[in-house]
Write a structure and sequence with these properties.
A hairpin with a 2-residue loop joins strand 1 and strand 2. By secondary structure, the protein is of the alpha+beta class. The N and C termini lie far apart (about 85 Å). It is built from three helices and eight strands, in the order αββββββααββ. The strands form two sheets. The chain has a five-stranded mixed barrel. Strands 7-8 form a two-stranded antiparallel sheet.
């Protein structure tokens, strides 16, 4: 019966394994830095302060608001969050509403980089009057 003979590991193979490990480590170390980057938001997203009292009920800019069934909440690290995890916390968000019902559909909890961009519409009237740059993710008044 033929059996494989043990092979010696060559120096070239050792260098390849170390190189792959270093590349994987570099990617892992870069992940937290990318979490603070600016995400792309749709032009119809508005900014507000959200307080979820008892899901799906909450307050948006001090007024009663309700989450739509299937609403998506993304945390400041862009990971999906459950509404119960945000209960009792006041957070600055960008949000969109469902057409017709007005329920909150998409919610993004803003990170420090995104909160620094102070010029973002808070009402639909502002969004219609201002000009949106989708590449720079900035608004300007005409």
């Amino acid at each position: 019966m033929f059996r494989c003979a043990a092979r010696a590991i060559t120096p070239k193979q050792i260098v390849e394994v170390i190189g792959a490990a270093m590349a994987a480590l570099a990617i892992l170390l870069a992940l937290p830095a990318s979490a603070q980057s600016h995400r792309n938001f749709p032009a119809h997203a508005l900014r507000g302060e959200l307080l979820i009292n008892e899901p799906p009920e909450g307050l948006l800019n001090g007024r009663p608001a309700r989450l739509a069934p299937g609403a998506r909440i993304r945390g400041d690290d862009n990971m999906l969050r459950m509404s119960g995890a945000l209960a009792g916390q006041k957070v600055i968000v960008h949000y969109t509403r469902e057409n017709g019902t007005g329920l909150l559909q998409d919610i993004w909890v803003l990170n420090a980089t995104e909160r620094a961009n102070r010029m973002w519409p808070t009402t639909e009237a502002d969004a219609r009057a201002w000009v949106f740059d989708p590449v720079g993710q900035t608004w300007s008044r005409p």
